[in-house]
């Protein structure tokens, strides 16, 4: 019922968005005398903001056609190298460029598409052979494809590393820090030839008991049954995954928006002011961010509920109780891997110390193979996107990879 109600609202807003968009163009059209009045820009800008906020959104594209390597523009071809029911391995292949360190970027499965990491990919692409996990929207996966849980996530990562081959590096942003860490421990324990040469964890919930945030508090204050009853919905008939139990992306997005509602309201107020002043470039920058941010996708119920239980409620990994296919995941098995933990000082989703815990858990890894970086005055999103990521954080990752590549 929840999903059906949302779809009805989405359809109504789509029509309202289209009408508002046309009205905005009318109010700001140079041929319209009202466009030169004091009222015209105000009404047109307000309608434009509403039209953008209420417009329906699909899966964004990466749109990375070229990159500069050693001062020369190089064509980039985006290839799907491996396909699985719930995700695919995407490769940003640079024409004529060989021998660069291979880097698997593990995108979050947390309500957004992999394109949320477009800035991460663009920054690492000139000096690295970049691959990324492109997770599918669960509502688009037919029930016949079976289930997808935390165990499946770990299996996918191991399979993707096997496809890329020995000597690759792995970078996990936020949510996938736990499964990426688990996959590395499992591969190390089995002396797997394709285990990552380095593992970089950025703003991830390795141990949420350290500096709990509002997200962590929500998960611990409510029993597991509450999430089953209130956060899970059934995909309606109009999608390929009809009948599948999911944690809807629109619920996840609503949660993120309400966490920082004041900041989002200010952003839209600034967008309105820029439009009124005729500063379309600044307004477009805000629009581009929200085009990506509001593009939400669903997670399977089993993956979401297992993550809430194991990561946020039982703290299974730091407690030594996390299991994969029935076998314990032992962080002490991690050897021969350079482990880098990166946190943002102002991260309100994964607090300072949650990611750093990964270094302590890998007890058999020598200190020389561990590194910690705290990005001052950086929030969660700024860890992997924006100026501070490009200028301050990415060089740390590059240096870490280069050090182990040469070794």
Give the strand order of the largest sheet, numbering strands 1, 2, ... along the chain: 1-2-3-5-4-6-7-13-14
Q: Tell me, briefly, the overall form.
A: globular
Order of helices and strands: HHEEEEHEHEHEHHEEHHHEHEEEHEH
The CATH architecture of the largest domain is 3-Layer(aba) Sandwich
Oligomeric composition of the shown chains: single chain
Main CATH class of the largest domain: Alpha Beta
**How many beta-strand runs?**
14
| Terminal CA distance | 57 Å
Tell me the CATH topology of the largest domain: Rossmann fold
What level of helicity do the residues show?
Answer: 40-55%
Gyration radius over CA = 22 Å
Estimated share of beta-strand residues: 15-25%
Could you name the key traits of this structure?
407 residues; 42% helix; Rossmann fold; 9-stranded mixed sheet; single chain; 3-stranded antiparallel sheet; alpha/beta; 13 helices
């Amino acid at each position: 019922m929840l999903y059906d109600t949302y779809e009805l609202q989405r359809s109504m807003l789509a029509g309202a968005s289209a009408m508002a968009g046309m009205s905005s163009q009318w109010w700001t059209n140079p041929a319209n005398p009202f466009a030169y009045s004091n009222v015209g820009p105000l009404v047109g800008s307000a309608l434009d903001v509403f039209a953008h906020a209420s417009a329906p959104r699909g899966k964004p594209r990466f749109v990375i056609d070229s990159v500069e390597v050693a001062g020369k523009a190089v064509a980039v071809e985006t290839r799907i190298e491996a396909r699985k029911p719930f995700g695919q391995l995407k490769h940003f292949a640079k024409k004529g460029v060989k021998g660069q360190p291979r880097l698997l970027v593990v995108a979050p499965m947390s309500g957004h598409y992999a394109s949320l990491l477009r800035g991460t990919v663009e920054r690492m692409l000139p000096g690295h052979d970049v691959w990324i996990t492109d997770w599918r929207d669960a509502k688009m996966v037919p029930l016949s494809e079976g289930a997808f849980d935390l165990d499946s996530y770990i299996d996918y990562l191991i399979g993707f590393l096997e496809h890329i081959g020995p000597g690759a590096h792995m970078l996990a942003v936020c949510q996938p820090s736990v499964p990426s860490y688990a996959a590395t421990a499992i591969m190390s324990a089995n002396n797997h030839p394709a285990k990552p040469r380095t593992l970089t964890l950025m703003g991830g919930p390795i141990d949420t008991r350290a500096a709990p945030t509002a997200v962590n508090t929500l998960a611990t204050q409510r029993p597991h049954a509450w999430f089953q009853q209130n956060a899970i919905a059934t995909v309606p008939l109009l999608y390929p995954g009809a009948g599948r139990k999911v944690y809807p992306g629109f619920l996840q997005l609503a949660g993120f928006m309400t966490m920082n509602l004041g900041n989002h309201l200010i952003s839209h107020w600034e967008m309105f002011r820029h439009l009124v002043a005729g500063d379309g470039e600044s307004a477009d920058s805000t629009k581009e961010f929200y085009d990506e941010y509001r593009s939400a996708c669903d997670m399977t119920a089993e993956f979401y509920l297992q993550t809430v239980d194991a990561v946020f409620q039982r703290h299974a990994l730091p407690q030594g109780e996390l299991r994969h296919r029935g076998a314990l995941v032992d962080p002490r098995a991690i050897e021969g891997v350079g482990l880098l933990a990166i946190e943002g000082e102002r991260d309100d989703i994964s607090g300072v110390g949650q990611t750093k815990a990964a270094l302590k858990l890998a007890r058999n890894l020598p200190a020389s193979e561990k590194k910690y970086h705290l990005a001052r005055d950086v929030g969660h999103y700024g860890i992997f996107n924006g100026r501070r990521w490009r200028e301050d954080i990415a060089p740390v990752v590059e240096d870490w990879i280069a050090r182990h590549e040469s070794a």
